[in-house]
Specification:
Length: 115
């Protein structure tokens, strides 16, 4: 009980800095503090061996599933609309397939109650 240790409030980083500043320190003045970004620099990453040098290419994406089959009712409605458009629209026979498709789509949407 001859002596007692009185606690000091010097932070550990300050103590380490003081010790490293001594001339015979094995870690003379650490100029840069540790940074986690050092690991992720491009030059550092290029030195790391790739994880899977022989990894196979991923398989190609699956083909799109075929569109659902049209019901008999849908086929009949589309045929009826096609006939009506051929009779009512002037120049139906002169139109391109794209123009006809757009008109058919608009007519079907109107009949089904879409915009």
């Amino acid at each position: 009980r001859g002596f007692s240790v009185k606690p000091k409030s010097t932070p550990m980083s300050e103590l380490i800095r003081r010790v490293n500043s001594q001339p015979n320190s094995p870690f003379p003045n650490a100029s840069r503090p540790y940074s986690p970004f050092l690991k992720s620099s491009r030059t550092m990453l290029s030195k790391i061996a790739p994880l899977h040098p022989h990894r196979r290419a991923p398989p190609p994406p699956l083909p799109r599933p075929p569109p659902p089959k049209k019901t008999k009712k849908q086929v009949e409605m589309e045929e009826r609309i096609e006939e009506e458009l051929a009779e009512t629209v002037d120049g139906w026979s002169c139109m391109t397939d794209e123009e006809r498709r757009d008109l058919r789509r608009a007519r079907i949407n109107a009949e089904l109650g879409y915009e």
